[in-house]
Amino acid sequence: MFSRREPTAFLVVLTFWLIVIFLTFGLLSSYNGTVISIIVGCALSAGGPVFIINDMAYPCGGLIYISDELLRIALLRMGRG
User: Fold this and answer.
1) Spatial distance between the Cα atoms of 63 and 81, rounded to a whole number of angstroms
2) How far is 74 from 64, CA to CA, in rounded Å?
3) Is 22 within 8 Å of 39 (Cβ atoms)?
């Protein structure tokens, strides 16, 4: 199959940066359920696109993948024409 080569340094720096941002939000706010749920929701909405961008870098593998069946059919038809 495909070999996944992650930009490890970029992901580590980005993850550290997001952790620092959301920890400072938590330190400067009061401690109640509404604030915690908003911070967790914002952290998930910031982390979700990072996951999707990283996963879609390899479209034929991963959690979200694109089937190559239609591409194979098109290549077969192009070879006949």
Assistant:
1) 35
2) 22
3) yes
pLDDT by residue (tens digit) across 5-61?
A: 667 777 788 888 888 888 888 787 788 888 888 888 888 888 888 888 878 777 777
Length of the chain in residues, anyone? Answer: 81
Q: Which residues of 55-76 are buried (b: 16+ CB within 10 A; e: fewer)?
A: eeebeeebeeeeeeeeeeeeee
Does residue 3 have a pLDDT over 60?
no
Q: Measure the CA–CA gap between 77 and 81, rounded to whole angstroms.
A: 6
